[in-house]
Description:
The complex is a heterodimer of chains A (276) and B (456).
Chain A lengths: L6 E4 L10 H6 L1 H15 L8 H21 L9 H28 L1 H6 L6 H28 L10 H25 L2 H15 L15 H4 L3 H14 L6 H26 L2 H4 L1
Helix pairs in contact in A: 2-6, 3-4, 4-6, 4-7, 4-8, 4-10, 6-7, 7-10, 7-11, 10-11
Chain B lengths: L11 E13 H4 L6 H13 L9 E13 L3 E5 L6 H8 L7 E7 L2 E4 L12 H11 L4 H15 L14 H13 L5 E5 L7 H16 L3 E5 L3 H7 L2 E6 L2 E7 H20 L11 E5 L7 E3 L4 E9 L7 E9 L5 E6 L14 E9 L6 E13 L2 E17 L13 H4 L28 H15 L1
Parallel strand pairs in B: 3-7, 3-8, 5-6, 6-7, 11-17
Antiparallel strand pairs in B: 1-2, 1-4, 8-9, 10-12, 12-15, 13-14, 13-16, 16-17
Amino acid sequence: MADPQQVIDIHPQRGLFDLDLRETWESRELLGFLVWRDVKVRYRQTAIGVFWFVLQPLLATLIFTVLFGRLAKLPSAGLPYPVFAYAALVPWHFFAQAVTRGVNSMTQERQLISKIYFPRLLLPLGVLLAGVVDFGVGFLVLGGMLAWYGIMPGVAVVLTPLFVLLTIATALAVVTWLAPLNVRYRDVSYTLPFLLQIWMFSSPVAYSVELIPDRWRWLYGLNPMAGVIESFRWAWLGTTPPSPSLLVASTAGVVILLSAGVIFFHRMERTFADTI
Amino acid sequence: MTAGSPFLSPDIAISVSGLSKRYSLGARRRGQDTMREHLTARARSLLRGELRAESATHLALRDVSFDVPRGEVVGIIGRNGAGKSTLLKILARVTTPSAGHAQIRGRLGALLEVGTGFHPELTGRENVFLNGAILGMKRQEVARKFDEIIDFAEIHKFVDTVVKRYSSGMYVRLAFAVAAHLEPDILIVDEALAVGDFAFQRKCLGKLQAQAGSGRTVLFVSHNVGAIRMLCNRCLMLEEGSVVLDGPADAVVEKYVELLGQQRAAVQSGPRRPDVGSGFLLHPRDPESDLTIFCGEPIVFDFDIEAEQPPTDAKVGISLRVTTPTGEYLVTMDSVVQRAGWIQGEEKRWNVRCDLGRLPLNEGAYFVWVTVCVYVDHTVKRFARFTNAFALHVLENDVFGWGSGLPRSRHWGPLYWAPEWQIQPVGPRPAILHPTSRAASDGIHREAVACRDSSA
């Protein structure tokens, strides 16, 4: 970066695939600082700090247990309903938070965007990675719950990082599309809570995927979060594994959505400072 | 690195050619921030028979071209909205041009605003590292300069205090200190000196000067023409998005000041009616009259008073009052009190010339009221007042020759003065005199003018 002969070219247009990914990579130290800042600041001046992340899915688990477990008596794959729901709520909660924070990360840092140049992708990326810390805490609690109910996770639990990666990729794919739109139209941030709510009920969070009739499974599989959640349940609770074809399909879907999203983001990023 | 780079000779740090920036006004209008509003606006224009909703555009920058050789310190001046900030934003890559292109050779540090990226919930120490990273410094680089930065900001005791507990002065000092230690090959600064108390501003100016002296290329936008004259060897003047002047800093600043004066005079040409009372008109003479002056320069007001009825029976006196922009009276000068003669006779139109000499005004804006008083039997029978008949802009100038201009009037009050100081130890030994300034105020003026001349 300190190469004195480096020439910066400033042009009105830029190629569709001229993504400056090298520059984004060179700014990884800044990304580290953004993550560190987010982790440090997020729960400042709160009494219970990071336990907010634990508390929110726990409260949701409680509500779901009463509503769906006790009253509606939804099947929970033979597991205690609280564990069944919580194992899905940990990744879901991470996903929902990551998307919400990621989409709003642009407008929140409008000062920074309109005054300083840096690869804009670092902002949602930083917010997302900062959320991984919370994610880890969520798993600790899940481990505690399993011990309480005397459930032993299978060997597949070592695949957890892979599934975490898939969750991050899914969230980032959504954010690369919605964050630039939100810079232009604030409607996005108002629509987001509803969108996420609908998405949650279209994902096997409160219920088991077995509830979906077989002939609709393929459609259901288009929702990458369905695959993610089923994978987490399988890894930690030993439920039936998700079908590999479904997993491959949703991973491929996420990769395509994410790649196109990054291109979209880079196209839009150039006018952020003018429209934000 | 890119296809265009071979065209850039190695001694050119910044090359700008044909740069334009068009803003769509629609996109910037507040009321059109939601999709529904955007859609209804579109629908409305469709109803009006337009196929595309052509939103109004504004050319903030038109066809700007210039080269900056390596090591040159270039100032950019121009009135608000002339496109200075847009130009810097494009060069800093915050936004993109609509046409044209620019090339920059070397590591670029842009300081468009002091303190962006500071987080109130983090401590001073944490913010130094965070802000350093945002401005493009490596972690080790910040660590190496950390003590120097804290020294510069003078916040030793509060390094580990959360920044939101800082006073605004401390905050700004720390923010500038980080930026000042960036040490890029090319530094772009936008009005960053207009922060902090005066002593600190001076320090920042010094730091910038040191950077400029060490072979760094600097692009410096400021309203402070004093700072431009002091720092820059070359200056560009922008007007409505175009470069209208490009030359030695002193000459361009001189022209700029002249232009400001002309515009103000043009606004005031033609007779003025009184704001209070009636019976008289005021004709400012000499539309070229320069009402923008440097601190310490003489001020002369020259105008005609036209009476509707020739003042044959009454005696008419003139009173001038200088006020601050907020309306506080600074000084009132009265022709009657000074027994300077009367407006009296068959003539309708009278010329009044009031030479204020070197009124010791600090940098700032002032207004001058003109009151025409009709006396009958030594009492004011009626009067006509022209509120804010003249606007007076005083620009910073190094009146005392101490290396920098005086602080703005809003910090140090509207007037400067040169008292005679005596500072000596109190003790048994015979006193030794250290007169810091023996000059009478007139002598100082001469010095100031000489100083200005030598810099021109």
